[in-house]
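Dear colleague,

Following up on yesterday's call, I've attached the two folding results inline so they're easy to grep. Please treat them as preliminary; we haven't cross-checked anything against experimental data yet. The first protein's sequence and structure tokens come first.
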Amino acid sequence: MRSHTKRFYLLFLFIFLLLVSGCREKEEEKSIFENNETTQWAETLPDKIDETAEWAEILPDKIDGNYLQVIERYGYDGYPTYQEAFSDGEFVKNLKCFNEHLHDEYSYFELSFQSAQKIGYYNGDIDFVLDNDKTMFNQRVELNGRQTYVTTLKTVMIDFGISQILEEHIDSGRSFEITDYEVTDRKIPVILGSEYAKIYTVGDELELNYLFLNAIFTVVGFLKPDTSFTILNQEITLDNYICIPAFEANMKVDSLNELFLQLFYIQKNNGMILIPDSCSEEEVEEYRKMISESAKEYGLYFDLAVLQTDILIE
């Protein structure tokens, strides 16, 4: 599950180093969420997840069903590279259209483990750092001709439906509201894991770099201790995570925002679709074909990871 996220992080780090120091190095790893996510209760799910408070009332903690994760194919043999994709002036528009298609045609959750960067020396605990990896703690880089540090923190992007499941797991403050899913500037609400409550309070602001967007993260709530996702039989405790809404980025596609929008909407399209229980290999291949062909209609290259899974939030 972590392999696709790791691969995406390596892409991010590659671009970051390329921009700040002229380094040209390509890192390629096998998919991070390659074995990913989710569930059944298909009988009670509507054709799409309607992101409203009314729908949230029927969401159980266990999204009991069967899911496959959508993954991008850029950088693999035979597919365009990320750099080729990013050079397409219509790339952001096409990613947004494909995201709308996923929501319109499937029961689609946006859940993606990501990373945000602290620029400058980081005095925090290693437990907040991605994968608890010391190599991602205060990495030395050259930025604007000066040496500085970058530390990669654990973050997870969640859509409105999932945030409503998390509502009963809020220890203080609040969960995300529907208005939090429309962002027009660089101020983004966040819910923090319980360990962050030792450092911050509701209303505090964090300055981080999020997919090349220098943003202000405003704390709206804290999770109860030991709140977790269980995916692919792997429990991920959120005590040290930053939870970010899978918002719609209503920003102009210009030189300041374009790279962020490209990376962000790739992540939004790395969510999970609900499929019938116990799909055969042939049926999974049919779903893969449908996703791949739909993506190609928008000039994109996406696929499905083949491992079926469910999600438990507790």
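Below is the second protein, in the same order (sequence, then structure):
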Amino acid sequence: MTPKYRDIVNKLEIKLLQMHSDGQKKLPSEQELCRAFSCSRQTIRSALGILEDRGLITKRRGSGSYLTDIPVSFEASNKILFITEDQDEYIYPDLIASLRKLLENRNLSLICLNTGGSIQTERKHLEKVLLEPPAAVILDPLRDTIPNPNLGVIEEIRKMDIPVIYLNSAYTGGSTSFSTNIGSKYSSTSDSSYSSSSRSKSGSQISGSKSVSPTSRSKTGSSNSCSRSCIVSEDNKGGASLLVHHLAEHGHRNIAGLFRIDESRGISRYQGCISACLDLGLPFNEESYYLYSSSEKKQLLRNDNGMLLRFIEKHLPGNTAVICQNDLIAYRLIELLRSKNLGNIAVASFDNSYYAKNQKITSLGHKENELSLVLFNTIQSILTHQNYTPTPLTWTLHPRTST
């Protein structure tokens, strides 16, 4: 059995990489680490000693442990990189915890890197992939309906035969298993350094074993590299249609909506509302729909309700029901509606998160841990070169008192 401190070393290496990417220097105290890993101080000191011997941290008497300037490697043979806007936001902590547990059962580790909504930070993380290739990359696009200058970097990653798994949607013009080339070419004065640092990885096709290793890859890629990218998505148009039908069955004919315009999930949900209203013979008024941007979303997360107030004032009048992009927006909207004595407005949304369960919001959801399981199966199949194409996840309606 592997000593516990060795397991802690592996987990701390992932934390060091995340700290390095976030610009953090100081590690948690030994006492905090003991609580986090449920172990003795001596075990933590053994783990920190190994990291210090490797030159990854330095200890300062009376102050604690700090990162050094030596870069932390992905150790690509067993690391899965997840690039997302904020791993601590909304539904992501549960998704990440479930996926990490599944991957650890196959000796794979999950590293999460936040972009903070910044294209520049996303590019920095993608360039890190070129320098130190992981086994695979899960990419949660920032704003996939508008041009992205990082497409060329993503194409270079794919040319190195590193699997790219898009979560929810792919960037416009991006390459997946069902589309091939990106128009823009990645170029950099440091391209030669990427070439010199790229390295081959070897492994075997292990289906059902306790470990999964990527097969050999090279800078030039392979003949089947296009098949090693795909999208794990949801049937968002069908989900919106399901909500419209539910509201219509409860006597609502005039339905408003709040959807995000710079990501394809929001557009698909908007399209689903349009199609369902037309199919059911319900009136459709584009003025009843507020299409918000990522910057407005950030303002909402900073407790700025300006977007919701504008919706209530300009788009809600004349409607008896609202379909929201997600549960967080629905939760915040219901609070405002009640403060304005508009609690009779029906509200429905997506994700069936803790917001929906606590506020009794009618919401669409998936089976427990379904998304993480589909991501895991996709990763495992791609790394072992099995034929597997994930189908869009369908939604299940969870009716509650909000409708």
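For the second protein, one point worth flagging: The CA atoms of residues 151 and 174 lie 6 Å apart.

Best wishes,
A.L.
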